[in-house]
């Protein structure tokens, strides 16, 4: 089926070339009867699935500035046993030209998504060749109740070997209440548009909360494809809790029971993914990432998490919120801390801050003195190596 769909799209695109030539070099014509495919229109890149429910699917791609896009999907209609197509209901691109589109979907169907750049010249709508993503698996059916997840993770930046728990400085200093009453993952690198938020006095009433995390359920047959995402909290003992501050069952509405990989992401730590698909067939799943390194998926010669004492933590030092932690070379984390955040000053301290450059999560960003971020990055995270690079394994 996949090859038929691709062949069909290629055929349709190819059939429009003569129209493009007529628009470009022939007499004026009206181009309202078909798409005009032009190699001069730059196609989008990096088309992938962000998330899906029983009723919508979100795809993303890398765009270019001031560009219009057309997003369509072809799918096998399980009811009529015919091929249908549908267009996106919402297309949005941010300032960094990271684009997303929401497509209405039918549960149980497989989709081929087509993203094209569009440029209108006169009466002729010129389109780029399509960037295509084929979904090889049916989208999950909606069971109406969704699933819940309970789990534990620990953050290296906040973990205290003396107490066996994470420090909650961002909470006790009032930083979370001042700067993080809404989930912080709507920025580049995460692009999560969730509306999770808390009210005045919430963090003071829940002092064990350390920070926000982003939890993803991923398809068991395609672990890079996100089925659902939620922002939630992690507490000092590593428990993940809902936005009420206490419920350790994180809800994912409109998600079918079954098996899903679970990924946990944090704004200045490398993400981790469960080494196996978690069983949600009864509607609830649980997973403890802290007990062993093999609980997290790894594709590098070293474990995805790092051992701190007797537990395993998400690796810290990710001041750039990227997929690599490193001290030297292009896009390194020490440059982000020293030059980009501290303006090159070895003595400056920025206090009471909620920022990824605060890699040891004590509420301050500084280069020298007790509890400085440079020392944590180089000596704690990278074990004193200027050349080591730690890669996100998820």
UniProtKB/TrEMBL annotation:
<dbReference type="InterPro" id="IPR036116">
    <property type="entry name" value="FN3_sf"/>
</dbReference>
<feature type="signal peptide">
    <location>
        <begin position="1"/>
        <end position="20"/>
    </location>
</feature>
<keyword id="KW-0732">Signal</keyword>
<protein>
    <recommendedName>
        <fullName>Fibronectin type-III domain-containing protein</fullName>
    </recommendedName>
</protein>
């Amino acid at each position: 089926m996949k090859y038929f769909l691709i062949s069909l799209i290629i055929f349709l695109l190819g059939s429009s070339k003569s129209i493009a030539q007529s628009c470009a070099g022939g007499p004026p014509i009206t181009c309202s009867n078909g798409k005009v495919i032009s190699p001069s229109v730059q196609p989008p890149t990096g088309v992938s699935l962000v998330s899906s429910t029983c009723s919508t699917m979100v795809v993303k791609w890398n765009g270019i500035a001031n560009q219009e896009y057309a997003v369509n999907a072809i799918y096998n209609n399980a009811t009529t046993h015919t091929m249908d197509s549908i267009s996106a209901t919402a297309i949005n691109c941010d300032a960094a030209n990271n684009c997303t589109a929401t497509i209405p979907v039918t549960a149980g169907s497989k989709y081929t998504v087509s993203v094209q750049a569009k440029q209108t010249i006169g009466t002729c709508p010129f389109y780029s060749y399509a960037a295509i993503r084929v979904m090889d698996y049916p989208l999950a059916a909606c069971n109406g109740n969704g699933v819940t997840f309970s789990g534990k993770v620990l953050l290296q930046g906040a973990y205290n070997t003396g107490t066996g728990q994470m420090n909650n400085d961002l909470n006790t200093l009032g930083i979370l209440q001042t700067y993080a009453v809404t989930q912080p993952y709507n920025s580049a690198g995460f692009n999560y548009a969730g509306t999770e938020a808390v009210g005045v006095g919430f963090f003071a009433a829940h002092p064990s909360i350390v920070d926000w995390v982003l939890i993803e359920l991923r398809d068991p047959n395609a672990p890079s494809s996100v089925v659902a995402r939620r922002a939630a909290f992690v507490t000092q003992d590593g428990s993940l809790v809902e936005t009420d501050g206490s419920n350790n069952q994180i809800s994912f509405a409109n998600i079918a029971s079954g098996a899903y990989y679970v990924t946990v992401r944090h704004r200045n730590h490398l993400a981790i993914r469960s080494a196996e698909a978690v069983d949600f067939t009864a509607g609830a799943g649980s997973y403890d990432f802290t007990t062993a390194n093999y609980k997290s998926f790894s594709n590098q010669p070293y474990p995805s998490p790092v051992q701190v004492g007797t537990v395993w933590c998400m690796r810290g030092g990710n001041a750039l919120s990227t997929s690599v932690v490193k001290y030297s070379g292009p896009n390194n984390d020490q440059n982000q801390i020293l030059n980009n955040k501290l303006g090159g000053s070895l003595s400056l301290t920025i206090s009471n801050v909620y920022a990824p450059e605060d890699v040891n999560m004590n509420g301050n960003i500084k280069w020298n003195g007790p509890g400085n971020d440079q020392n944590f990055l180089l000596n704690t995270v990278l074990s004193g190596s200027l050349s080591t690079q730690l890669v996100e394994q998820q």
